[in-house]
Amino acid sequence: MNIRKRIRRVLKYKDLYVLLVQRDIKLKYRRSFLGYIWSVLNPLMTMLIMTIVFSYFFKRDIEYFPAYLMAGNVLFAFMRESTTLSMSSVINNAMLLKKVSVPKYIFTLATVTSSFVNLLFALGAFLLVLLIVQVPLSLYMFLIIIPIVELFIFCIGLGLFLSQITVFFRDVKNIWSVVTLAWMYMTPIFYPIESLDPRLARIIMHFNPMYIYITIFRDLAVYSRMSDINILLQGASYSFIMLVIGSWFFRKNQGKFILYI
Question: DSSP letter string over the chain?
């Protein structure tokens, strides 16, 4: 199936896609007193606690540290939430899949998109922090769409891969929580990359996609500068490669889902 046919098929089920996104967002905040406000409060409170810990207890001398910290935290939180929820996206819709003929990937796509909506709320909180910390704003701010879209595509690919493998191996959920924890510490969210051993820093700079997306985002939003063209291309490459890998595995194994869900 070529790209044009796939796009037409997605558009055919656009109403279902929108309903699934709305359902996921509503379920997350069901019976919550503050509701959607938590999408703003959560990153703010996390940023406040981590700023206190790493500014005063561990003495991190980083310019605009609260903004630096929150920039990394909101992007990593989106990746972690979207991929973690994606693992159950097929399994949780087993009854619907058994009754209705719909593209199976639409459930994973809707899950990542609902997490993306939460990211947009968090970006509102991030903008508030920029104003409080008095980070100089510039036209580069409008280009943050570049790393955000790259990360969104990367998470769709990773989500598709994880959702199909979880159908067959439920233990992946437990393993992934450990993987994301290690991944977080291997990503310069609350420390500068320069503080690491040069050999380890080089590995992270070239083989950690989250470092790439967060660095581009920080350059544009916090430091008002355009990232090097190489890192921009790296980000695009990781997004494309992950989408191809995730789509290929999902398409290869989706015919067996009905036997395991």
Answer: --HHHHHHHHHHTHHHHHHHHHHHHHHHTTT-SSGGGHHHHHHHHHHHHHHHIIIIIS----TTHHHHHHHHHHHHHHHHHHHHHHTTTTGGGHHHHHHS---THHHHHHHHHHHHHHHHHHHHHHHHHHHHHTPPP-GGGGGGHHHHHHHHHHHHHHHHHHHHHHHH-TTHHHHHHHHHHHHHHTS-SSS-GGGS-HHHHHHHHHH-HHHHHHHHHHHHHTS--PPPHHHHHHHHHHHHHHHHHHHHHHHHHGGGGGGT-
